[in-house]
Amino acid sequence: MTAIAFAQPDAAILARRDAIVAGLAALVPSDVLITNPDECRAYETDAFTAYRRMPMAVLLPRSTQEVAAIMAFCQEQGVNVVARGAGTSLAGGAIPQEDAVVIGVSRLNRVLEFDRPNRTLKVEAGITNLAVSAAVAPDGFFYAPDPSSQLACTIAGNIAMNSGGAHCLKYGVTTNNVLGATVVLADGSIVELGGDAMDMPGLDLLGLIVGSEGQLGIVTEAILRVLPLAEGARPVLFGFDTSEDAGACVAAIIGAGIVPVAMEFMDKPAIEICEAFAKAGYPLDVGAMLIIEVEGSDDEIDFTLQKIVEIANGHGVKVIKQSRSATETAQIWKGRKSAFGATGRIADYLCMDGTIPTSQLPYVLKRMSEIVAGYGLRVANVFHAGDGNLHPLILFNANDPEELAKAEMAGADILTLCVEVGGCLTGEHGVGIEKRDLMPKQFTREELDQQMRVRAVFDPQWRLNPSKVFPLENRWMPQ
Amino acid sequence: MTAIAFAQPDAAILARRDAIVAGLAALVPSDVLITNPDECRAYETDAFTAYRRMPMAVLLPRSTQEVAAIMAFCQEQGVNVVARGAGTSLAGGAIPQEDAVVIGVSRLNRVLEFDRPNRTLKVEAGITNLAVSAAVAPDGFFYAPDPSSQLACTIAGNIAMNSGGAHCLKYGVTTNNVLGATVVLADGSIVELGGDAMDMPGLDLLGLIVGSEGQLGIVTEAILRVLPLAEGARPVLFGFDTSEDAGACVAAIIGAGIVPVAMEFMDKPAIEICEAFAKAGYPLDVGAMLIIEVEGSDDEIDFTLQKIVEIANGHGVKVIKQSRSATETAQIWKGRKSAFGATGRIADYLCMDGTIPTSQLPYVLKRMSEIVAGYGLRVANVFHAGDGNLHPLILFNANDPEELAKAEMAGADILTLCVEVGGCLTGEHGVGIEKRDLMPKQFTREELDQQMRVRAVFDPQWRLNPSKVFPLENRWMPQ
Q: In whole angstroms, what is the distance from residue A205 CA to residue A194 CA?
């Protein structure tokens, strides 16, 4: 997309390209290094965008030691490095650069150790999110953060973006579920951060790594907290006449101190798109819908649902439809989780990812419609309402540069609105390139400077995922 | 205590003492600056130790702006700063230094805003922990982390040490319950970190501040997550013949995926000491005791307790005693929470604070007894068993330098044991001075260097609580 601004490629690096590739070839087994353009093409973009850029080379190491050797070499040669999980990023975080090598972690995908009594699972960080839950499911456990892309996305990517998901309302996002990490720093040194205890002495560098978008190092192993599966769980669909009614109902449920395991919002366009794709049994005669899932024993579920139904009745609910079987439950979630894919079938879209205090939901939903309509575009809303994590999908035609520009302006207006009502620019997709130039709306110069100084401790040459997160013009360079 | 090593006081600062004090006097209202030795004496130590040292001056500012002005002045003058909450620190974190000024936050104690729908409370950070829960109790909420010192300790101190408490097993420690903070940096600039949304873009500097022991800045305001009070709660006492039996029972309960709201361990010496003080109805004919608290509706409590009783029966439980009233519940907790005070009435003690994987509890309890007995001393154990957070109290006579040395050696051996079994040096008391020289047992040189480089970003002159956390001899100084 035209709106994506990279820093200018470093001509000095590009001029040494052949020597760099030869050096890498001498360093790793031949199947670890990919330079063939046909094969590199699989890495030239991410899930977010039509924008494409070929990296200098792609490396797919098989061990922490290989990652360390590559990182040490890149430090010595001054080569930029873009880390990549599965490339499902929605904000441009994994987009390569022509003067950078991409280090993909997809081959680091083994389960290392399940410590059942301590309820922790040690994995290589390139394992997919879903494979983690699958590894512990036979013992009755699961890993809580569940991005919609969980079939493909990696734990390394989840850590880089502090990923969430529909079920994070109750169990927290990635930072609440990662206990330790093995990280290869910019100079190739390997550090262990955190551990499987509840606290560690000294500074919480693990917390700093989570959400750092590949700019502080590459996570190669992780110790994850896994949780006992609930006895049962049941989603219920609630249909409302308007988005505002549904938003007010969410705010009232949260305000009443009820914490369902998930509380997902879909407006009319999103319902129609997902129902057409997934045949999930969504009500088509309503203006907005909530999927509220409650878990526990049957009695607990009944008890909590009764309280939720009372609140919903007070907010003009029109349709209430409970799942009656595991199949129906799977259908309901399939509809929700396929929202992005299903939308992509009917239009190009820009998916924003702001977060707001839940009490602001009714107001923000109304303002978002007005903003997008003001640009002559349509929006479909499908998001994690319980924790106020918005995902407006702004629909447009990517072949029309003017529509793209309008969509991006509408997106920026929406994120600015999120900040204005006391929320923030991101929920779980990260800043990447998409929100980079909006960061000054969230932070003062002093606050950004402080973040950049900390970043520079880990990457003094500013070589790790260099064009992302911090605005290009005022990024801080160490003396 | 003789074993506490400060860096040598900076003679250049001490020589300018009068000028520095005069400068501070010109900066703040007269009642904010304390230089009178009689008044300063209240600040010359902390809860941990008999060690005393008078600060150059004590400042008790009333606003973030006053803190900022003092910090800017200290930066300009190169003066060290030790931040202080209520001085309940158990690891020497708040011990003053003669070449430093102490900035106490006790007057920053107002509740600023209760956002009920979003379940957040904004406070000035010098407010006491208990006052936070008191502020939201009328609305049916509470603040989860509950250090035993909660009547006195401040939120600022809780943030500095990442404090826990008996009820953190279910609800997490401070870092899981703080959403935002206003921090005055070393140069006097004021930054807002985090916010009341679930995630923020950019680096997680808030997570870095939590547990940083006053070395990155001074927290003056905080946004706290408050939780709905449970419908009910009931503690039960379980008595066992041996500590190993009780430890194995804890590991089995956690291993079964049950998460009580609290699971406290006391061995025979601790039971006797606490019962004599609090008349809590503890069984005196057992070798070890667990206090397990379960919360929810009466039915839920009964259901979960039944599962716990089954597991306890499988581990040779001898006594099971349920609380039958709110008064009994209060007595049971009073006994546990007064453990440190009650122990202090009968002997001097050194309280260690290591954390281990719960599966290692039986082994570690046995080894701790052997270690302490090997030095000819006694130990009382009272700790948060559910999350493996040990608090062995090593009893000794402080007037006997040899006993003190033995107690300290036993303490160091115990913490080393914690690291060896996969745990760590701290649970919730911080590193301070006490564990500073043990840090190389937990971290490699590279890992410590990385922490110190990050610390230096916030405090390049190494002036904030300078003698704490990092070993004096190899602390990293920026060029």
A: 8
pLDDT in tens, chain B (479 residues): 445 667 788 888 999 999 999 999 999 999 999 999 999 988 988 876 667 889 999 999 999 999 999 999 999 999 999 999 999 888 888 989 889 999 999 999 999 999 988 889 999 999 999 999 999 999 999 999 999 889 999 999 999 999 998 888 888 899 999 999 999 999 999 999 988 766 778 899 999 999 999 999 999 999 999 998 988 999 999 999 999 999 999 989 988 878 899 999 999 999 999 999 989 999 999 999 999 999 988 888 999 999 999 999 999 999 999 999 999 999 899 899 888 888 888 888 888 889 998 889 889 999 999 999 999 999 999 988 988 899 999 999 988 989 989 999 999 999 999 999 989 988 888 899 888 989 999 999 889 999 999 999 999 999 999 989 999 876 655 43
Q: Which residues of chain A does CATH 3.40.462.10 include?
A: 233-420
Which tokens sit at A260?
């369902």
Chain A nearest-CA distance from B156, in A, is 16
CATH node for A111-228? 3.30.465.10
Contact B447 A192 (CB under 8 A): yes
Q: Is B199 in contact with A211 (Cβ distance < 8 A)?
A: yes
Relative to beta strand B392-396, strand B378-384 is: antiparallel
CATH number of A233-420: 3.40.462.10
- What fold characterizes domain B232-420? Vanillyl-alcohol Oxidase; Chain A, domain 3 (3.40.462)
Residue of B nearest to A358 (CA): B118
ipTM of the complex: 0.78
Q: Is B366 helix (H, G, I), strand (E, B) or coil?
A: helix
DSSP A218-276: EEEEEEEE-EEPPS-EEEEEEEESSHHHHHHHHHHHHHTT---SEEEEEEHHHHHHHHH
Identify all chain B residues contacting A361, using CB atoms and an 8 Å cutoff.
Answer: none
Which residues of B are less than 8 Å from A193 in CB distance? Answer: 447
Quote the tokens at residue B108.
């920053």
**CATH code for the structural domain at B11-104:** 3.30.43.10
Which of A178, A203, A468 has the most B C-beta neighbours within 10 Å, making it the best mutation to test the interface with B?
A: A203
Chain B nearest C-alpha distance from A327 (Å): 27
